[in-house]
């Protein structure tokens, strides 16, 4: 008996993996990511995860809007970060600069973004492994992200990745800054985990 996924993917798509456009139609708003051509279905995020994602989103969105730096996406918006085979990842919060936005006509696309965001923010869930987090960070940078922030609610820390090899661990007594990606952005880590 064919699985739901097999029934929804055209046979020719299975040979080379699912493309980002095919995935957009298959997923139809359901929570999933496309990893090297394979659809990975995910359960909805837990309450803690959603809460902290919003606590990080709020100051970023307010700063981006007031400084007119670009746009912020939430709700696990899809970004195509690799092709052949396709990978579509969905961060908890993403910042897209005006420069990147203008490169596609100045408006968000109806389907997935055709590139990585300037900033990808991931909130670690209880079931996430260290290897999964490292892989996501690597993929974001490989796809063109300029920074990746990983929030760990259990330890109340934020790992600020400026590259794959440069990471700063921020604790509640520290202040999260936007560097070159979000100029002028500052937020006490304690406020995010309050």
What can be said about this structure in brief?
The protein is of the alpha+beta class and 194 residues long.
Structural notes for this entry:
- It is built from seven helices and twelve strands.
- It is of the alpha+beta class and 194 residues long.
- It has a single domain, classed as tt1808, chain A (Alpha-Beta Complex).
- A hairpin with a 5-residue loop joins strand 9 and strand 10.
- It is globular and about 45 Å long.
- Helix content is 32%, strand content 26%.
Main-sheet strand order equals 3-6-7-8-9-10
From the spread of the alpha carbons, the general shape counts as globular
For the record, the CATH class is: Alpha Beta
CATH architecture: Alpha-Beta Complex
Write the layout of secondary structure elements.
Elements: H1 4-8, H2 11-16, H3 20-27, E1 32-35, E2 38-41, H4 47-67, E3 70-73, E4 79-82, E5 87-89, E6 93-97, H5 98-102, E7 119-123, H6 130-143, E8 147-152, E9 157-161, E10 167-170, E11 175-177, E12 186-188, H7 189-192
Parallel strand pairs: 7-8
Antiparallel strand pairs: 1-2, 3-6, 4-5, 6-7, 8-9, 9-10, 11-12
Task: Give structural attributes.
alpha+beta, six-stranded mixed sheet, two-stranded antiparallel ribbon
